[in-house]
Automatic annotation (TrEMBL):
Chain sites annotated for binding ATP: 94-101
One example of a Gene Ontology biological process annotation: microtubule-based movement
Lineage: Eukaryota, Fungi, Dikarya, Ascomycota, Pezizomycotina
InterPro entries in the record: Kinesin-like_fam (IPR027640), Kinesin_motor_CS (IPR019821), Kinesin_motor_dom (IPR001752), Kinesin_motor_dom_sf (IPR036961), P-loop_NTPase (IPR027417)
Name of the protein this chain belongs to: Kinesin-like protein
Organism field: Aspergillus puulaauensis
């Protein structure tokens, strides 16, 4: 059952802007504990018209609420679902500089009170898994539970693996209808060809996890936006999955068996083509007829195909072994996922908004192109969340690379359910009124579908 939840987090004004005029927000609770927000400026301005949302927001966090308060309200209540094998996703949306990265990642990686949602969740899960490991598994290292970390960023149609030296990866839809992210092709000894998925780092302690995240963040791209010079210009995706060593080894075995199949399959194809070319000749009138001087060696073709079938079976056996690991583990939490997405800053390149920030230079054509792609991704994400909350028969996952990649989490196979939440990060500064209003309008549209569905079921 998909649940649509939209939270609002007002960031405090930075020390350098304490005397900056502020937006006037008014929060009002409605039936079902949903909250509406109205915003305006004093004095009123024709450029900054007052606006009011519907009763769509789950909760509003004040500027004085720290990361711990957000975690306790937004993420902590959902973690039992992850420990039950479900998939849960959290998105931070807002314009550049509104506090998305601070919310998802935090800026203090030492003090638990200031951990972003991702680190706080990993710390919580680590403690729960430690208790589980101490209570069972008979000391078997292969069954020890830990957190598998995948960390990558999306820029346009390309993904970059932040735990594998920023390796360029490609987003493709497979024969199974699922979206896969694969790295560059590696040519190995013996003609083997290996194409790795996004790297999963097994973390068996919280310190392992923290070090992995810090290494990944060092490689994340940033650039100049209309707000500041170190804006995140990519969508950062952090996937946390409950794993054990047996599961990671089983998945690695599939990659290796696939690499072994490549030269064998290629040889079978080459032999077939070679025999066919020898077995037929082209006549003067352009037709192909049997070559009377050569008899196709069907036995040679059959031997190559038999060898290919043998290696194909090895791949299938390796894939089936993954399922066996899940079935035999006795660990209901195995495969449970948490996905945190630090979305790129939403930008609004509409006429005068280009010069909203005074002395800041106008974005270059390339930066505007990036901004348009980011906005396309964000609009596509909104429509997917709305379509799922409204239980529409068709979900527009293919509208953007971002939603294609996230499809696997929204529809995680083997899960009993899924949960998603959007955290809107908003600035109270009056000179950010247009950007803040657009952020709230986005959340209003996302949350409205969930309210409409609730009303239909009452």
């Amino acid at each position: 059952m998909e649940s649509s939840n939209v939270f609002v987090r007002w960031r405090p004004l930075p020390p350098t802007q304490l005397n900056t005029p502020e937006i006037n927000p008014v929060h009002e609770k409605h039936r079902g504990s949903r909250v509406s927000i109205s915003i305006s400026t004093s004095p009123p301005s024709p450029a900054n018209r007052a606006w009011k949302s519907g009763p769509v927001f789950t909760q509003v966090f004040e500027p004085t609420d720290g990361n711990k308060a957000v975690f306790n309200t937004v993420v902590a209540p959902i973690l039992p679902q992850v420990l039950n094998g479900d998939s849960c996703s959290f998105f931070a949306y807002g314009h550049s500089g509104s506090g998305k990265s601070h919310t998802i990642l935090g800026y203090d990686f030492e003090e638990p009170e200031d951990f972003g949602l991702c680190l706080a969740a990993a710390r919580y899960l680590g403690e729960e898994l430690k208790d589980s490991n101490n209570a069972s598994h008979g000391g078997s290292a292969s069954l020890e539970l830990g957190i598998g970390l995948r960390m990558y960023e999306l820029r346009g149609n390309t993904a970059f693996d932040l735990l594998n030296n920023h390796c360029k990866c490609y987003i493709r839809q497979g024969y199974d209808g699922q979206t896969h992210i694969r790295g560059e092709t590696e040519v190995l000894d013996g003609g083997r060809v290996r194409v790795r998925p996004i790297v999963t780092k097994g973390c068996w302690s919280f310190d392992d996890f923290r070090r992995g995240v810090l290494r990944g963040l060092e490689l994340r791209a940033s650039g100049r936006s209309t707000v500041h010079d170190e804006s995140s210009r990519t969508h950062a995706v952090l996937e946390l999955e409950i794993v054990n060593r047996a599961l990671l080894e089983a998945r690695e075995a599939v990659v290796e068996r696939e690499s072994e199949l490549v030269p064998v399959a290629k040889r079978a194809t080459d032999i077939y083509i070679e025999e066919q070319m020898k077995g037929f000749v082209k006549t003067d009138d352009g037709k192909f007829v049997l070559n009377p001087e050569y008899k196709i060696d069907q036995g040679r073709i059959d031997d190559a195909e038999e060898k290919k079938a043998e290696f194909e079976k090895r791949v299938r056996d390796a894939e089936e072994h993954i399922g066996h690991v899940f079935r035999s583990s006795g660990q209901i939490c195995l495969g449970g996922k948490l996905v945190f997405v630090d979305l790129a800053g939403a930008e609004y390149y509409h006429g005068s908004s280009l010069s909203t920030h005074g002395s800041r230079p106008l974005p270059s054509p390339q930066e505007q192109k990036e901004g348009r792609q980011i906005n396309t991704d964000l609009l596509a994400l909104k429509e997917v969340i709305r379509a799922r909350a409204s239980k529409k028969p068709r979900i527009p996952y293919r509208s953007s690379p971002l939603t294609m990649v996230l499809r696997g989490h929204f529809e995680a196979r083997g899960c009993k359910g899924s949960y998603s939440a959007v955290i809107l990060t908003a600035s109270p500064a009056a000179d950010q009124y247009a950007a803040t209003a657009n952020t709230l309008k986005y959340g209003n549209l996302v949350g409205m579908a969930g309210v409409e569905e609730t009303d239909r079921t009452v």
